[in-house]
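Researcher: Next sequence.
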Amino acid sequence: MTPSYSVSRLNSTTHLVIHNDKFFEFPYIYVKVYGNLKLAVIIDTGCGANSAKGTRGQTDLKTYIEENVLSTSRDEKQWSFLVICTHCHFDHVGGIESFADDDASIVASGFDKDFINPANLPKNSFCKAFGVDTPKYKVTHFASDNEHLSHSGHDLGLTALHTPGHTPDSQAIYDVKERWLFTGDTFYQRAATMPWAEKQDVPILFPPQGNWHDWCASLEKLLRLSKAEDAGNEKLVRVACGHTTSDAVATAMVERVIDFAKRIAAGKVREVMRLPGKDVAPGGSLGDEIFVYWHDEGDVEFSMMAPERFLEDFGPIVLETDL
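Model: Next structure:
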């Protein structure tokens, strides 16, 4: 018997919750607690209660967080919630509806609002393709690039960054005080072992709506940020991703991702296979396009899967940081 979720402390104000879901996505959910405000900021919400694979414990994320992260009693003021979506895929917004039902504030990227409007969400979230109900929620705030987020007039010390590439609505969140950068699915390491001892091996995945050039530009933006924040500081910025990776040195990891991307574009990473979108992910389909899977031999840090058409976009990757 395995748990529906696991929880561990990431830093002094933030917990990592991992969803043990039936699609084997094992998404990472981050809960930042503002005790003075009785506010919990939730970065992504997993796959949803009906997608749980674990059979032990609470399956509703909001209830799980209330019981396992937040201290509550009948005599205390109840907690408020602010949910930040790093992007709209089903394994990151699946648990959002219970927060929306409780009048939580919901923040999404303002880069491409149409991508996540209710008419487009069933397709672009892949809820329809994976046979899960599309959650009903309303974005209460579309964040601008480099916006300092606030709640009820209180500065949260969080900066939103538009990072399109994995999806048009991808965004990262930088926690200024903790010096932690939350990047969603823009990148992550290939392999991890879950707290319930199950191993995960996943490529950096681009859906059909992904864009190689936007992704490369977003990597450069994140690298500039982490380098600037690291300058003159002994405490280096850490990075926490949407899967597998929650505590890595940000600058060094982004540099390694960029190097990996350059090697793929130059044809120096082994192409393992090409397969149709319907065979890319367990339990659902990424459409009719053909996908390419790159993975060097051995226990390497990264692998990647992207639509075959990305091959036409590849060329020398020259970033401002190279000049």
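Model: The two ends are 54 Å apart (CA to CA). The chain is about 20% helix and 25% strand.
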